[in-house]
Specification:
The chain is of the alpha+beta class. The chain contains 7 helices and 11 strands. The strands form 3 sheets. The protein has a 7-stranded mixed β-barrel with strand order 1-2-8-11-10-9-7. Strands 3-4 form a two-stranded antiparallel ribbon. A two-stranded antiparallel ribbon has the order 5-6. Helix 4 packs parallel to helix 6 and helix 5 packs parallel to helix 7. The longest helix has 42 residues.
């Protein structure tokens, strides 16, 4: 599979500079299921047009960006002109400002933009390895700055278990609400009984997974959406999900005791349960793939039928 780089440039640590290239961590292997907006009565696709109140529909190449500095008064802004305020070194370099302890920056400040950072060329391999190993031995992360997607970005560099540098675009401090605002709304801390505390800790211990595999969790929304699409395309009725009767309302102490006891009874079946989850995961993956193929095949068949009708 051909991987496309998102960014190329240099990574600078004081006087040390190495060439790096960035790859987005987002996978494009699993195609998203897209729904279109339709006119309910005729099911034609809804189209959008960009309209000027004075001249009507405007072509994309005639549209510019602007900032309203006074009521009904705009100044035209070309974002490419921002490069005039940046040196060429700033445009093509990531600059590490400081190293910090691992976990010092809360995930609240993480955006959804994450990248793998790799050495670019043979000469970059040794300084890359030295940087990764030094950060790993010292248990630190790096705070850096650079221009990505035509915007100055605050960045966090981390070392993962495969000895790769991970780069995450961060939010600035004023872009995240302070937790103190919500902490003030908490009621006074309750004082649980010793047995309640012991049961709560036992419950957490029982349900703590020593080896966690995120791949065991599947995208249930997409799976259900594909099932719905397949049923609609083939004119089948949907089978409603089974509703479970709500259990007896228990007090907090009773709920804790019963939960711990229930987990104790299930301990001996843990291996069987894990195997069932693995089988269900594999089955889910296979059925998801089959559903995608069915939907895609049906879509192609429908297109050929429409083409045949037009030819006739």
């Amino acid at each position: 599979m051909q991987l496309r780089t998102t960014w190329k440039g240099s990574l600078n640590v004081s006087l040390v500079s190495l060439r790096v290239k960035a790859y987005s961590t987002a996978s494009s292997e699993k195609e998203a299921v897209h729904l279109h907006q339709l006119h309910g009565s005729c099911q034609s696709r809804i189209r959008y047009q960009k309209v000027c109140p004075q001249h009507g529909v405007v072509a994309s190449d005639q549209i510019v960006m602007g900032y309203e500095h006074a009521p009904q008064q705009h100044v035209v802004i070309d974002l490419a002109e921002l490069d005039l305020l940046r040196s060429q070194q700033q445009l093509r370099a990531l600059r590490i400002d400081t190293f910090i302890e691992q976990g010092l920056i809360s995930p609240l400040y993480f955006t959804d933009k994450h990248y793998y950072l790799l050495p670019d060329g043979p000469t970059a391999q040794l300084p890359y390895t030295l940087l990764v190993q030094a950060m790993d031995v010292r248990h630190v992360q790096a705070v850096a700055r650079g221009v990505l997607a035509k915007r100055e970005q605050l960045l966090l560099l981390r070392v993962n278990s495969e000895n790769l540098l991970l780069m995450t675009v961060l939010k600035y401090a004023d872009q995240v609400r302070s937790a103190a605002i919500f902490a003030e709304q908490l009621p006074a801390a309750a004082s649980p009984a010793a047995e309640e505390q012991a049961l709560a800790e036992a419950l957490v211990d029982q349900q703590t997974c020593r080896e966690f595999d995120l791949a065991a969790y599947q995208d249930e929304y997409t799976e259900k959406l594909l099932q719905l699409i397949e049923a609609k395309v083939n004119g089948r009725a949907l089978t409603a999900a089974t509703e479970h009767e709500p259990g007896q309302v228990l007090s907090l102490m009773e709920a804790l005791r019963e939960s711990v006891a229930q987990n104790d009874r299930a301990t001996n079946d843990r291996t069987v349960s894990d195997r069932t989850v693995s089988d269900r995961t594999a089955t889910g993956r296979n059925s998801n793939g089959r559903l995608r193929k069915k939907v895609a095949t049906t879509k192609k068949t429908g297109s050929r039928r429409r083409s045949s009708k037009k030819s006739a």
